[in-house]
Amino acid sequence: MNMTAAISAYNKVGIESGVTAADPHKLISMLYQGALLAIANAKNGVLRGDIPAKGKAISHAMLIIGDGLNASLNKDVGGELAHNLSSLYDYMIKRLLAANLNNDMEALDEVAVLLGGLKEAWDSIRQTAIAPPPAPSGQPEQRLYARG
User: Fold this and answer.
1) pLDDT tens, position by position, 135-146
2) What is the value of pTM for the model shown?
């Protein structure tokens, strides 16, 4: 096994192990981190003039945002906040599409800043998400991201 294949296998096992062991809150944080990493890879692709790598990285970021973050929102329970986040995720996907078509570094930076702010806010509520206050008697617990 060559070194590249070994590193790839190690990374795959590390990611799969992290996902398996993660609670729903941590999974959302991992999605934010994955999208940020994909955008960084896209920026590197633009800088190197590697159009296929840029396109693959942007597609990956769009997939994480659309099929990961947006799809995990519980709009029935999350109310206006969940709907606003969904609209923001849709906007990010449009900006990433524009970045892909035009090699637009500013659009990539804009989405990275938005995702970074959301990740920071999400990570700051970690303790609350792990141990939420008890629900009033007879009331089920409700979460913005409740599909996990």
Assistant:
1) 666 655 555 565
2) 0.74
